[in-house]
User: What shape does this take?
Amino acid sequence: MGQGATQSIILWVIMFAIFYFLLIRPNQKRQKQRNLMLGQLKKGDKVVTIGGLHGTIDLINEEAGTVVLNAGGNKLTFDKAAVQNVVGEKATAPSLEKKEEESK
Assistant: This one.
């Protein structure tokens, strides 16, 4: 193998490493956090859906993958994946806690 071919392979490996650490790995971390949050949902949690609806969880149907939200006296059924985040005094944001600890 010539010197040019070796340099080309090294360049491709470096480009892949940069791509992995800047795009793939952070996305995997975000997805892992989201799956953890969805797995920890429970009745009474105040949540916001991806559509911006604020409500309280009345029922979680694990088999169907749905949640029933009470929003302003109305009960609405959503896919569990439609929950964007948990809000309120019970809510913890692991990513924010980590950032605060790192800044100290």
Q: What stands out?
A: Confidence is low (pLDDT under 50) at residues 91-100.
